[in-house]
Amino acid sequence: MDSEPILTVVSVPKPFAGRMNLIQRNALATWKMPGPSVEIILCGDERGTAETAAEFGVAHCPLARRNEFGTPYLRDAFAAGRERGRGRLMCYINADILVTGAFFEAVCGIERQAERFLVVGECMNLDLPEDWRVAGGGWEKEARQLVAERGVRRGVQSLDFFVFEKDFYMDLPDFLLGRYWFDNWLVWNARKSGATVVDLSASVLMIHQNHNYSHVAGGFAGGQFQEENRRNWAAAGKGFRVYTTQEATHRWLDGILAPQLGGRLLLGYYRRRMERFFARVKHYSQRIVFYSRNPRAVINKIRYGHP
Questions:
Q1: Between β-strands 206-209 and 124-126, what pairing exists: parallel, antiparallel or unpaired?
Q2: In angstroms, rounded to a whole number, what is the distance separating the alpha carbons of residues 28 and 54?
Q3: Displacement of CA 106 from its chain's centroid (Å)
Q4: What is the rounded distance in angstroms from the CA atom of residue 243 to the CA atom of residue 9?
Q5: CB atoms within 10 A of CB 155
Q6: Sign of the torsion formed by the C-alpha atoms of 55, 27, 15 and 19
């Protein structure tokens, strides 16, 4: 009889086409490396998702609910992990993230030392060669070398993975996947509930494979992307429920949960106020760019109250 997995990894890939095909296959290959202690569920019906799941021998779960742009919801992906997954813990991860071996070791160590927790961390942005592939046991050494040469920190506000107990996020706002702000709300919610929030950034390398936004109509600055960001911004409290790795209660250092005092003291309070301010600046600057490129949207906003 097969042993039960420890961790259920859930992801909602973009279409397996063009550059994203190789990027997502690379990520998936790294998730599978721990073997039977990890199970993987690919959610959604984007091009190639079901076929890739079958090829890699992982589960596939369609997501029926989408908005008018065809974008799925975070709560449905979490529900799929709870209902289909067998692991004690769940990890939601973006489909372009390379996971190193230290990640799975850290998750097991944190589970032994904390009762109710959320694990997050800052990834490194990396431009990989067009034909670079995860192959064999030497991929991690090669990737670390590339990160040392050209890697750039992603930013404490940009979170790409979350590990938590399966019953942790039972009631989520209608956040849209692949857009801003829901990641920061998850940290805020964990802190609000009194959970231990662990930042892996100092000891575990996670790699974000850089890519464009050609899978979104209009790209990064297009109307769809900006409108969906606005909706997530509203659902996240318009900047008042936006936390980052700096609000973590602990850091994972050499196998030990080390308290991060700055997240609990007055310094954390003022830091959050500054982050909210810059989050608002970021949000409204994106709106300005959108309206400057779409004059008709300005007219529609004046006439009908929406772009």
A1: parallel
A2: 12
A3: 18
A4: 23
A5: 12
A6: negative
Q: What amino acid occupies position 128?
A: L
- Among residues 123, 148, 269, 114, the alpha carbon closest in space to that of 208 is found at 123
Separation of first and last alpha carbons in the chain: 56
Q: What does residue 5 show for φ and ψ, rounded to 5 degrees? A: -70, 155
Asked if 172 and 75 touch (Cβ cutoff 8 Å), the reply is yes
How many CA atoms are closer than 13 Å to the CA of 194, on its beta-carbon side?
Answer: 1
At 227 the three-state DSSP class reads: helix
| Residue 159, SS3 per DSSP | strand
- Residues 32/40, Cβ–Cβ less than 8 Å: yes
Model pTM? 0.84
d(CA 156, CA 159): 7
* Residue-by-residue DSSP string for 85-131: --SSEEEEE-TTEEE-HHHHHHHHHHHHH-SSEEEE-B-EEE---TT
7-262 sits in which CATH class?
A: alpha beta
Q: Rounded distance, CA 159 to CA 92, Å?
A: 11
**Backbone dihedral angles phi then psi of residue 284, each to the nearest 5 degrees:** -75, -30
The packing angle between helices 266-293 and 223-235, to 10°, is 150
pLDDT tens digits in sequence order for the chain, 307 residues long: 457 899 999 999 999 999 999 999 999 999 999 999 999 999 999 999 999 999 999 999 999 899 999 999 999 999 999 999 999 999 999 999 999 999 999 999 999 999 999 999 999 999 999 899 998 889 999 999 999 999 999 999 999 999 999 999 999 999 999 899 999 999 999 999 999 999 999 999 999 999 876 655 555 455 677 899 999 999 999 878 989 999 999 999 989 999 987 644 445 556 666 666 766 777 677 767 766 767 665 565 555 555 5
Please tell me the distance from the alpha carbon of residue 236 to that of residue 253, in angstroms, as a whole number: 30
3-state class of 172 per DSSP?
coil
